[in-house]
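Annotated sample (chain length 208).
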Amino acid sequence: MSDVKNTALTPAEAWQLLQEGNARFVAGDTAHPNQNAARRDELVNAQNPFAVIFGCSDSRLAAEIIFDVGLGDVFVVRTAGQVIDDAVLGSLEYSVAVLDVPLIVVLGHDSCGAVTATREAYDSGVMPPGFIRDLVERITPSVLTADRAGITDINETVVEHVKQTTARMVESSRTLADAVEAGRTAVIGVTYRLAEGKAELVSGHGSL
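Output written by the structure step:
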């Protein structure tokens, strides 16, 4: 994979590479590409990641491991519950406007603690203290949408949150919206199953 540049990849091709890596991970046949000294030296002066992975900070959701990629392959942004804020949007805009990355993956997972905390706060009417409250407030619109659809299961709520996050991301950033509209970039929502190790596509904006 070390000779693959992001400028040579379409969003669909970038997603295919991630799917192939995840399939290796699920099968226990990981290749650990681009993780040696030669690759490290190659990246000293430049980077050409072929995808952005915006995922939850959960310790079980290490993007490079899940998708079996290495140094320089993916640009990673993580917050608890994959919550969007200005710093996240700035990082994503940088990846598209400066690095020309063709694919943004919003990565959620089952049994998400941030989504669980939000559901509990919504059901009880009691908000958590400190800055955890900020996380809950940002996830609450997704829980409200799920609730209106009759969804109360946490894992199904996570799927809804991933869908809402991909939509909000494109709506919030003119840079991302323009890139998607022009076909330069796609934004997709993916959920990860902790027990199986499998990443599954659940939503998308742009062509794959």
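Annotation: The two ends are 20 Å apart (CA to CA).
Annotation: Confidence is low (pLDDT under 50) at residues 1-5.
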